[in-house]
Amino acid sequence: MKAVSIETGKASKAKVHGVNRGISVFDLVLRIVAIVGTLASAVAMGTADQALSFSTQIVNFEAQYDDIDAFKFFVIVNAIACGYLALTLPFSIFHIMRRRAGKSRVLLIVLDAIMLVFITSGASAAAAIVYLAHNGNTSTNWFSICQQYTDFCQRSAGSLIGSFGAMAMMVLLIVLSAIALSRS
Amino acid sequence: MKAVSIETGKASKAKVHGVNRGISVFDLVLRIVAIVGTLASAVAMGTADQALSFSTQIVNFEAQYDDIDAFKFFVIVNAIACGYLALTLPFSIFHIMRRRAGKSRVLLIVLDAIMLVFITSGASAAAAIVYLAHNGNTSTNWFSICQQYTDFCQRSAGSLIGSFGAMAMMVLLIVLSAIALSRS
C-alpha cells in the first residue's frame, strides 16, 4: 500500500511539474508576442508624420507624434516595456528548466504588475487624445483634427492596437505566474 | 531527534501561518483604503461643475464633468472599482481565517489585475485631458481652458489623486497575494 501511494505521489508530482513546464513555455511565448506588440506600437507611433499638401513656404502644416505629449509618453513607455520584456526572457527560460522557482516568480509578478501599469497608462492617455482628435469637443472648443490629418490620425489610432494587445498579454502573464505559484 | 525536528517543523509552520495572516490583514486594510480612494475620486469628479460669472441669459458658460467623455469614463470606472473592492472584502476576511486558500487567492489575483487595468486606463485618460486642459496644444489649436474654468480644472486634477492612490494599492494587493501564494 505504501509503495503504491509513493508511486501515485510521484506520478502526481510529475504531472504538476509537466503542467508547470507547459505554463512556463506559454509564458515565454506570451512575452515574445508582447515584445512584438510594444515594438510595433512604438515604431508605428514614432514614425507617424504627415505634411499637408497646402503647406506654404512660410507656414508649414505638419503633424508629428512629438507635437502631442501623450503620444511622446506612449512611445517612451512602449520602448521601455519592450526592453523590460526582452530582459525578462532569460527568467522565463530559467522557469522552463527549473520548475520550482517561487522567489523569482514572485519577483516577476511584481515587475510585471508595475509594467502593466506603465503600458496601460501610456495606451490610455494616447487613446484619450486619439478619441479627441477624431471627435473633437464642442464644450471646450477643441476641434477634430482628423479631417485634415487623416493619415496621421489613422496611424496613431492603429499604433494603439499593439499596445492594447501587450496589455492583455501582461494580464495573462500575471495570471500564469500566479497559477504556477499555487501549484508548486 | 525526530521529536525535535517535528517540533521545529510545527514552529516554522506556525510562523508561516502567522506571516500569511499578517499579509491577509494588510490585504484587508489596503482594500479599504482603495475603496475610499476610488469613491473619493468618483465623487470629486462627478460633482465637478463650474458656471462662469459672465454667463448670459442666452448662452450659458458652464463646465461639467460629463462634457468630456474621458471624465465620464473616469467616474464610471472608479464607481465600478469601488463596488468590486467592496465585494472582495469577504474574500479578504476569509483569507484571514483560512490561511491556505490557494484557489481563491489565484482568483483574486486575476480579478485584481483586470481591475488594475480598468483603474489605470480611467486615471490615465483623465490625466491626459487634464494635462491638455492646463497646457493646451498649439500644434492642434486646442487651447487651455484652465484660465477660465480654474475651479473646474483644480477639482478634476485633484480627483485624480484618489485614483492614482488606488492604482498603487492594487499593485500592492497583487504582490501580497503572490507572496502569500508562494508561502502556502
UniProtKB/TrEMBL annotation, chains A, B:
Listed GO CC annotations: plasma membrane
Location within or outside the cell: Cell membrane
Bilayer topology annotation: Multi-pass membrane protein
A UniProt-annotated Pfam family: CASP_dom
Keywords of this entry: Cell membrane, Membrane, Transmembrane, Transmembrane helix
InterPro entries for this protein: CASP/CASPL, CASP_dom, CASPL
Superkingdom classification of source: Eukaryota
Transmembrane parts of this sequence: 28-48, 73-94, 106-133, 160-181
Domain Casparian strip membrane protein: 21-168
Subunit structure comment from the entry: Homodimer and heterodimers.
Family note: Belongs to the Casparian strip membrane proteins (CASP) family.
Protein name: CASP-like protein
Record organism: Anisodus tanguticus
